[in-house]
Amino acid sequence: MGSSSTNPSSETLLKVGVVGFGPFAQFLSRTILKQGHLVTATSRSDHSRLCSELGITFYREMDQFCNANNDVILLCPSILSLSSVMQSLPSNRLEKGTLFVDVLSVKEHPRDLLLNVLPEECDVLCTHPMFGPESGKDGWNGLPLVFDKVRIRNESLCMNFLSIFEKEGCRMVEMSCTEHDKLAARSQFLTHTIGRILSEMKIESTLMDTKGFQTLLQLRDNTMKDSLDLYCGLFKHNKFAKQELENLEGAFHSLKLKLQETQDAK
Asked: How far apart, in whole angstroms, are the C-alpha atoms of residue 35 and residue 8?
């Protein structure tokens, strides 16, 4: 594990390596840096200029990144690309005792993949910050961080990393990856589905919008800020999502029947 410094409060500073330096990773990295931790990054796209501005060491080659002696490797790729990212990691170059943390919106998929691919000596922490650059732009206080200590031998390192979110005031929610996916299928996936349905319908603001309709427009706009890849990943890699989609179809059909019955009533 990489050598660490100590801040005035005697808490150990971490060297956090970020894999996949898209908007969400950049959002998290700014707070990690603000707390005094060191950050390195690697990504398929060249983010060397931004990283230089932020004070982050950027590596184009995965081998160099793995040799950077990171305490924590924070996985921030898309759901659909996690498998290929993990296959590109030279496992023989990983430091023993490295803590791997994912921040994907599904949890069973990364849990199973990391346990299967990583050496036994690597710890695994699955997390899902239930916020992003928009909802967390004014701070993280009160926003939930869901986590599951899947395989943790170095409890101190794990708690040190989780303290990043605690210090920002996050509501820490520990639950299993399976329970997360079950709940997320009904909340996150269903929300994204409704938002994309509204987008497909091409609804627009009118001169007589109700507050409820404005809420629907906001839901559509917020949903469409996320990529189609994210939505497809929520469906493909959450085994509970298919059932929620069927539940939605069933509820829609049931409502149509009730309307039809009303129309046909004499």
From this structure: 12
Distances (CA, A) of 106 to 51, 113, 119, 205, 264: 27, 12, 22, 33, 44
Instruction: Provide the token pair at 219.
Output: 């839901």
Q: How far is CA 182 from the centre of its chain?
A: 16
Which alpha helices (H) appear in the chain, and where do they start and end?
Answer: 23-34, 48-54, 62-66, 82-88, 108-117, 155-167, 177-184, 190-200, 211-224, 228-236, 241-264
Q: How far apart are the C-alpha atoms of 87 and 251, rounded to whole Å? A: 41
Number of other CB atoms surrounding residue 158 within 10 Å: 19
- Output the DSSP codes for 57-76: EEESSHHHHHTT--SEEEE-
Cα pseudo-dihedral 249, 250, 256, 260, rounded to 10: 150
Distance of CA 230 to the CA centre of its chain: 10
* Average pLDDT of the residues in 122-133: 96
Beta bridge partners of 16: 39, 72
| Three-class SS state of 18 | strand
List, for residues 227-246, the tens digit of each pLDDT value.
999 999 999 999 999 999 99
User: Which amino acid is located at 74 in the chain?
Assistant: L
| Mean pLDDT across 7-32 | 86
Concatenated DSSP letters for 175-195? --HHHHHHHHIIIIIHHHHHH
Alpha carbon 172 to its chain centroid, in Å, reads 15
Q: pLDDT for 35-74, tens place per residue?
A: 999 999 999 999 999 999 999 999 999 999 999 999 999 9
Pair 13, 38: CB distance under 8 Å: yes
pTM (2 d.p.): 0.89
